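Shipment paperwork, digital attachment
Item: protein structure file
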Amino acid sequence: MLDLDGLTPFLDRLADAAAAAIMPHFRTSPDVENKGEAEFDPVTVADREAEASMRRLITEAWPDHGIIGEEFGVEKPDAAAVWVLDPIDGTRAFITGLPVWGTLIGLTQRRTPVLGMMAQHFTGERFAGNGTRSWFTGPGGAADLATRACPSLHEAALFTTSPKLFPGHEQNGYDRLEREVRLARYGCDCYAYCMVAAGHADLVVEAGLQPYDIVGLIPVIEGAGGSVTNWSGGSAAAGGRIVASGDRRVHEQALEILSAVPG
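Attachment content:
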């Protein structure tokens, strides 16, 4: 079994290394490459330098651990412990100067997310969790995180990265859900999930995610009292179509709509 208490300070070491690599490039008009084919999928030197820095630390400290990263792929994916890294989740926000991007750091034990952090280096905020407890550090000090009560979709605030994120039947399912909620907001990337964990919003719904987009966020939301599943109610650790919520009641109501969408 992993010693999560012993590993928790390592999250901050990784976040510090990522911050040192990223912040010299934020709001400096860095060169942007497009690694996509059908659509624009930007990457910058900050993405690559940050992931490389975190990988070096992991390899030095825990040589038997595996790594899955957005920029440099997979090492030892069958290891009992695997780190899952997204150096800049929200690169589109990053290159347009918006501080809703973040560094995502996750740790899985036998493919189950057990430790995670989202670090927003410009604001100095870090949201972390171990699945049973979640906590915040930032300019306002340190605090435990807790989701808020929300018994009904009609009272819920919903986030998604873009209303154009969903193809075909998925768009119809998302539109049905959005019509039921009180408020919908777009474009907040990983920051949206942390607002659910902190009790300021109620739902995040997305599709087309990779493991590095979500693994680091699952222990944060679950540790704050929330839920993260795929649209069928199963594990979200592999990515895909994701719903995250602060209240199990509104989660179940969202699943009633989303689980009917063809896979």
